[in-house]
Amino acid sequence: MSDAPSTSFDVIIIGAGISGINTAYRLQTNLPSVSYTILEARDGIGGTWDLFRYPGIRSDSDLYTFAFPWRPWTKQKIIASGEALRDYIRESATVTGIDRHIQCGHKLVSADWSSEQQAWRLGVDADGAEMKVLWARFVVLGTGYYDYAEALPSHVPGIERFEGQVVHPQFWPEGLDYEGKKVVVIGSGATAVTLLPVLAEKAAHVTMLQRSPGYIVSVPSVDQSAQWLGRFLPAWLTYSLVRLKYLVLPTLFFKFCRRFPNAARKMMRKGTVEQLPKHVPHDPNFEPKYNPWEQRLCVSPDGDFFKSLHTGKSDVVTGVIDTVTETGIKLDSGRALDADIIITATGLKIQLAGGTHIAVDGARVDVTEKFLWHNIMLQDLPNMATIIGYTNAPWTLGADSAALHICRLLKYMEANNITSAVPHMADPSRVKAVPLLNLSSTYVEKGRGAMPKAGDTAPWKPRSTYFSDMWEARFGSLSDGLQFSRVAV
Question: Which string of b and e fits 272-286 if b means at least 16 CB within 10 Å?
Fold first, then answer.
């Protein structure tokens, strides 16, 4: 790998999705003199919303809080399609000039901190044609925590015998013809709940096959309170009030579910039973083994999932797969499900930083052994931040509090001629490791070993709430748990 030509930036952001675009905006707004670029491995921007193209893909959060706080969502529907979100992210990058800083087709391969240079040396694969070297005083990983190249491996016995087509939603084939065909979707998460009603519009029949059920909540796709307030108040005030509603009420509901799980289960059951057709039993198909919000709730805009069940073109089956046959799936109960297409919506594989080789002065660092300082900076890694949003709230909220925290830190470093900030744990024996992500979903449980750690004491605790995280980002201590250095370079 050659160092020529090399380019230096104050900040390099990895990933041009929600996290990367938002961080770039906060940087150029709060620190206009800072030079930055965004490296995006794919050919287009949008991150998750550019990668996933399966039918019906949409947000599972309201756009009052999922959209960028600096560019309000103005469309009527608050549960947006993947295409609408892609357009929104791209337009946001264009109108703010962020798009001019993005280098698509540039995949970060390695990152090595040089104590001598007080900067990160980044090895970048440019379109598979050449290896570039870029230098950055500070690196922000806006790559999320999913593996874009590989889905979560799932063991489906006998799947190799199936003579139809097997599809994973992460790699949906363009132009897949499912019209008039029998489709079985394996899974019970957000992707399966999204796919069922959309596929059922054209398919002969769609079955959602689940080993165990999850909670499905119907939400309106249009907020009536916003429509009503808009008749009397200016648009900015209406938006602010409705956004505040979506910041507060879901947080309270989450806390209610955790504090009163039995009451929450009864509430969820009542809401589900009211929407089910008579021929679809609640038990065992809609009776999860866990309490509400121990795993993420699945959203059904305007109850489209339940409406599809009423048509008779879709159903839900709960059972364990015995084996896949040439023409479908046989359950251990003896029941057979005929299929032309099997969709394995069984989860995503967790991976931090896109699998980048990270080192300090040539010594590789295992990020899974490190704690996260305020859920942002990796222990013992100078000048490197990672953006990890919420699991129980819109991702953008966590991404924005992290971006503002980073900007405040950079301002402090600039004002005090500090060249590096390193999260350091004085006495690791006093900190007990706790899960970074507060959910028990299968993909989270299987991926815990691929993520950094959180601790049981500040500043190593996992994310709490948007309000507490924003307070910490704006007013919290920058010295607690950080070591600063001033090195002449």
Answer: beebbeeeeeeeebb
Please tell me the pTM assigned to this model. Answer: 0.93
Measured distance CA(291)–CA(295) in Å, rounded: 8
Distance CA 417, CA 137 (A): 13
3-state helix, strand, coil in the chain (%, to 5): 30, 25, 45
Pairing of strands 106-114, 119-126: antiparallel
Determine the 3-state secondary structure of 324 from DSSP: strand
Average pLDDT score over residue span 154-169: 93
User: How many CB atoms lie under 10 A from the CB of residue 145?
Assistant: 24
Rounded CA Rg of the chain: 24
Phi and psi angles of residue 415, each rounded to the nearest 5 degrees, phi first:
-65, -25
Which has the closest alpha carbon to 316: 343, 292, 280? Answer: 280
Q: What is the CB-side half-sphere exposure of residue 164 using CA atoms within 13 A?
A: 21
CA distances from 401 to 24, 26, 374, 458 (A): 13, 10, 10, 17
Q: pLDDT tens across 112-124, in order?
A: 999 999 999 999 9
Asked whether residue 5 carries a pLDDT value surpassing 70, the answer given is no
Residue of 188 and 437 predicted with greater confidence? 188
Distance of CA 32 to CAs 71, 76, 265, 382, Å?
19, 33, 49, 23
The span from the CA of 38 to the CA of 15, in Å, is 6
Which strand (E) or helix (H) includes residue 134?
Answer: strand 130-141
CB 5 within 8 A of CB 135: no
Whether the Cβ atoms of residue 358 and residue 365 lie closer than 8 Å to each other: yes
Strands (E), 273-414: 298-301, 314-318, 321-324, 328-331, 336-338, 341-344, 357-360, 363-364, 372-373, 377-378, 384-386
Q: What sign for the dihedral angle of Cα 75, 80, 81, 86?
A: positive
Q: How far is residue 449's CA from residue 406's CA, in Å, rounded to a whole number?
A: 26
Tokens representing 480 are 């607690």
Q: Are 65 and 246 in contact (CB under 8 A)?
A: yes
295 has pLDDT over 90: no
* Comparison of pLDDT for 271 and 442, the residue scoring more: 271
Cα gap 439→437, rounded to integer Å: 6
